[in-house]
Amino acid sequence: MMNQTTVQPIGFSVLDLASVCEGGTPADAFKESVRLAKTVEQLGFKRYWLAEHHNMESVASSATSVLIGHIAGHTSSIRVGSGGIMLPNHAPLIVAEQFGTLASLYPGRIDLGLGRAPGTDQLTAKAIRGENMHAVNNFASDIQTLQTLFSEKNKNSKVRAIPGEGLNVPIWILGSSPDSARLAASMGLPYAFASHFAPTHFRDAIRYYRQHFKPSQYLDKPYVLACVNVIAADNDAEAYRLSTSLLQLFLGMVTGKRRLLQPPVEDMDQLWDIQQEYAVNQMLTYSFVGGPQKLKKKFQEFLSTYQVDEVMATGPIYDTEARLASYAHFSRVIQELNVSYSAV
């Protein structure tokens, strides 16, 4: 049972990397993203975020702001945003102009989640940042610059974001470490944790964030979003079979042999050794794989333990219909839990 003094409904959302499946193309991935966004909007999901990654064969969301506009243009009410934009890869003014444009086109629907990682390997980061490889050290000040560019008080400045000025696009801090928690707490911004692939510091980071949060003009109390892996199906066995595509994806990260999103397999033991299996499972601590009953039990335990405000699901499933069904199962589970909590 939740221990919150005032029980608030748990928000549920989607993180999409526009996964490119074996046998498919980025164009196919974009079509599937639009279909997914339309489906989850109808299911009552709160937001649909896309992540900036580069030089990854299976990820087509590299031009993140462009894809955000594409998704927003094919939906009508769901919030669309970045989970996230890797700010050290960009000049704050350009980000302000891009998201100011998006917020002007789709008012009240755009989120700007910001991360400090390169979203790629170091060689590609060098190609992106050039001589500005130490831009990560300016992360906090670059966020403050963005806030200024989005504010009305900047109208008399010699450098202005047009469009963008006066729009106050919601900014989120994304991270996977105590450093990001400290920054989000000190700036009074909502905090999204990447527990779907970096679970190690999740508990400590969100605890620090809550304990040290300083209310701001943007947010009066802490707000924690946890991103997790969700692979759901009609039964546990089918969910596990579908999850082998996710396992293969992370195996590629562990071995350095990345591939397009692979079809599910019947036996992962043919693909990995004991050490690789252990490494993959360590990264996937916060993964919810199963049929409706198992999923509900695991989420009930997770929400009771961590009391997050919102859960963002990512579910790289090879088959489109199975992917849509998985998000439908997820939404039903969270909505059922919300009903049960509201009755407490």
What are the key terms here?
15% strand, 344 residues, TIM Barrel, 11 helices, 9 strands, disordered N terminus, 8-stranded parallel beta barrel, alpha/beta
Summarize the structure in words.
With 344 residues, this protein is an alpha/beta fold. It has one domain: TIM Barrel, CATH 3.20.20.30. Helices cover 44% and strands 15% of the residues. It contains 11 helices and 9 strands. An 8-stranded parallel β-barrel has the order 1-2-3-4-5-6-7-9, surrounded by 8 helices. Helix 2 links the parallel strand 2 and strand 3. Helix 1 runs parallel beside helix 11 and helix 6 runs parallel beside helix 7. 46% of the residues are buried. The N terminus is likely disordered.
CATH architectural category? Alpha-Beta Barrel
Globally, the shape reads globular
Q: Could you state the CATH homologous superfamily?
A: Luciferase-like domain
CATH topology, by name, is TIM Barrel
Average pLDDT over all residues: 92
Low confidence ranges: 1-6
Q: What class do helices, strands and sheet pairing give?
A: alpha/beta
| Terminus-to-terminus distance | 8 Å
User: What does the main sheet amount to?
Assistant: 8 strands, parallel, barrel
User: Rg from C-alpha positions?
Assistant: 20 Å
> What's the CATH C level?
Alpha Beta
SSE sequence, one letter per element: EHEHEHEHHEHEHEHHEHEH
Q: Into how many domains do the coordinates divide?
A: 1
> Number of helical segments?
11
Helix content: 40-55%
| Strand composition percent | 5-15%
Order of strands in the sheet with most strands: 1-2-3-4-5-6-7-9
Oligomeric status: single chain
Quick one: how many beta strands? 9
